[in-house]
Amino acid sequence: MANVALYNMEGKEVGTIELSDAVFGVEIKENLMHRAVVQQLANSRQGTQKAKTRSEVSGGGRKPWRQKGTGHARQGSIRAPQWTGGGVVFAPTPRDYSQKMNKKEKRLALKSALTSRVQENKFIVLDELKLAEIKTKEMQKVLDNLNVSKALVVIADDSDNVQLSARNIPDVQTASVGTINVFDILKYNTVIATKSSVAAIEEVYA
Known about the structure:
By secondary structure, the protein is α/β, with parallel strands linked by helices.
């Protein structure tokens, strides 16, 4: 099992904690992490883009002028793509961008992302993270004590004060154990988790 340092909110090392190899010590599968990120970004796309083709634009029912004798190029409709107000060539239509991924693959991708953060020494464990009130300054002080800036903070479900205190800090995202994902883990430079959050992650994803 991997041992990582355990810190308090003042940024001081107060011990060590063992991380389960079943979650934080797996073989890193970069291909699955890539697929998980692509899937998440694809599933977040609305796919509601739409433009009208020449058959959908109103008007232009008759030929604008006769075929020959006017000096103009021949035209069949004023709603053809070359006309102002005409239809769009190969117009985009609504579509579903969502992709599927097996549950086992998604779980292994998440474990791979967590393992990569541990191996790169970018996984920080706190003995606890509790704020008496909603105060952005107090949350920023904790981050400064840990010497981190762009971070994903994994919190327990009852840490409302922490979540509300961190929401106005740039480049800081909070997530519960059930909502962590590969994209956020890889997006932020550091993952910060409490001791209780680590235990919950090991229980859920082991």
